[in-house]
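Objective 1.3, modelling of assemblies. Example input:
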Amino acid sequence: MTPPRRQRRYPRHEPPPPGPGKQGKQGEAKNPERLYVVAGADEDGARAALDLVTLIVARADPPPSATPEQAALLRLCTAPLSVAELSAYLNLPFSAMTVLITELITAELVQARAPIVRQAVPDRSLLEAVMHGLQRL
Amino acid sequence: MDFNGSDTLPGPRTGDHLPHTAQAAVKIVIVGGFGVGKTTMVGSVSEIRPLTTEETMTQAGIGVDDNYGSESKTATTVAMDFGRISITDQLVLYLFGTPGQERFWFLWNGLFEGALGAVVLADTRRLEVSFDVIGRLEERGVPFVVAVNSFPDAPRHPVRELRTALDLAEEIPIVECDARRRASSRDVLMTLVRFLHSLAVTGPPR
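Predicted structure (tokens):
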């Protein structure tokens, strides 16, 4: 039986722009501690900074003024958890989650640890670390 | 939902917490048609029980109501399963299994753009389901490998035939796997990361 056939496609645009912050020279390790600081967020920009795998860590106990959702989130991320995990545990859609987290970042109640995103020139040492980690599985 | 009842609050089980040293995460997307085994693959390698994140998609209704000028809108909830693998004390890898339809991809910021790469999980009984997915990854410049989930009753094709059918460049790996098996799914991820590494050495193909 001959399987059906596909036709190859090609990039429409240039490769995606590198994440915020300029990538260093080739081979230079990226600083994994690059943080997004969302202060006095504009209407739209704040949300764009949060990725599914941005790690969120509480910086303080829930203050008395915290809403129940905020308090629940702060209790969950006493140790780092991704936005995706918080969304799953709190049973909130991703977009609602980013709004909630953005409020907490602004109030300096949580810290966000930005993910490492794909760059035009992939980071070899990062990929090697991932390979070694997978080998141990 | 009552967020006050912290006793009953669903949260990570003991051991599902990340260490405080966790500094950054990376992600890999597993993409494929419905029922192709994405969730199975995520579950077989994840160190946590797979979780689900949801997003609501609203679209203007199109249909007979248009004559009456009613702006009917339908909201669809789209779910995405994911899992996690701790790479080091500082680095965490997340795996997302996502539906193949592009309209879902916009719901989560940078799902593909920020990912290290993607695994296209294919089923030889419905190979054409993967065509569109592969085309979109090509258009977006997302590096990917193809993993054929070996269902017992699926037709077997030599890799060469699959490569022709999928019109894949010679350097793009195609592997067979059994998504239910941890070692097999792990090997698929290794294949992807090795491929990404080779791109880092040689530069992206033109």
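Chain A has five helices and three strands.
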